[in-house]
Hints:
Elements (H helix, E strand, L loop, with lengths): L13 E8 L16 E3 L7 E4 L3 E5 L9 E5 L3 E7 L4 H8 L4 E9 L2 E8 L6 E9 L4 E17 L5 E10 L8 E5 L7
Amino acid sequence: MKTKADLADKFSGASSLLFQPGKLSISGNSIGALEPTLDVPVKVDTLEFEQGDPDIEHYKVIGLAGDWVQSAEPGDITLGFRVPTKSVDVLEMAYGEDAVKKNITATLKGFNYSGNGLILKNKKVVGTWIIVNDTEDQVVIINNATLYASLVLDQDAKGVIAIDFNGSIESDGSTPDVLFLTKGEAVSG
């Protein structure tokens, strides 16, 4: 029998959430070089990644207290987090480059203001999310992720503009959806 110590393969202490556009391409057993484009700021305690309970279908027959047979569908994956920024890079990732209008100006009470505008639209954010642990020796990679964004005025800290991302995994049934990787030797060359 394997002991608890034998089974202790732990991941804890998420310190970064990295975004890489698109789904991973795995050839053989290699992903190749990960190339995240954003180290996304995530509000503490909002990162959620959970698989729900399976949907169990109970088939009963007269005269038996238990099930005659069961079938099940896997539980849905929930992925979500809050990103407290109005960075153009994050807005473009969340809503599309064509949704961000840059260099807009206005005057208010004798002062000039300039910035960006956002056209709120529904965009499917397809990508790979990499959760790095606090000692940076392990990563959990969420592949095949599809999320949608929604703008929010978070009332914590008296009103912070943030973007909520919520979605799931669209599994292709052949590429791993979740990968657990541990840091190894440095790449030479």
